[in-house]
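[job 4471] stage=fold_predict status=RUNNING
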Amino acid sequence: MNTAMSTKSTHPWDWNLAWQQARTKKRHDRSDNSHWNKRAASFAQNARKSNYADNFLHLLAPQPQWSVLDVGCGAGTLAIPLSPLVQQVTAIDFSETMIALLNAQCAEQGLGNIRTSLTGWEDDWDQAGIGEHDVAIASRSLVVDDLRTALAKLHSKARRQVYITSLVGDGPFDRRIFEAIGRDLDRGPDYIYVYNLLHQMGIHAEVRFVLNGGGTKVFVDIDDAVEKFHWMLDSLNAEEEARLRIYFERHLRKTQGGWTLAYQHTVRWAVISWSKEP
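[job 4471] inference complete, writing structure tokens
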């Protein structure tokens, strides 16, 4: 597999520039750490209910001798289940709250082979002591403006393989709900930008898809449904909340133990990977 990497593009269509332009239109996935500090607890809770980590690790096929760098580790969605399967995990994130939650989990579960570091994409990884690892992963964490530089940094820290999980379409955001409350939804660039930029950089990557299923969400009532969707719909005004309630009145169906949406919202993630030649 070709893994020669160029940080400059000579192609008339620059996918890094296209990524940056698409990100200017997005309304979600903010890149400031205060936003992720606020979301950390609910993000960690939702991650534990999902089978995303199991599906990702099935594709990764971790080996016991590996050292793994987990960039944008969050509260440990992958770092924690990876810990007993590999020799060492270095988990980095720019959110203080995410790192604190991960450290608490490590202490609670007695996981001694996870090293955490409060480090983001734009930081100096060498100065932070982030060296080479057998495998480098960036799982749903490419919330960056300069994609080419981020990919080059990740590539440089991997001896064997690199794995990236990127958005497919709207991802976990339900466009029907946004339309119902009168909001536009633009998630910005998805995985195809990443894949095409890698190609421009001389990397012929493989793309596979995993489902992010957390089972059918069951709500106690409409109030509970509105509360559970706050993570998706920041700062609802009174009119938007009224429209959201009407939407749930029309689309919630009685089920065992509560209420659930009458349709299934399928979420896919693209796992983009490549191997490095010796």
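[job 4471] summary: The radius of gyration is 20 Å.
[job 4471] exit 0
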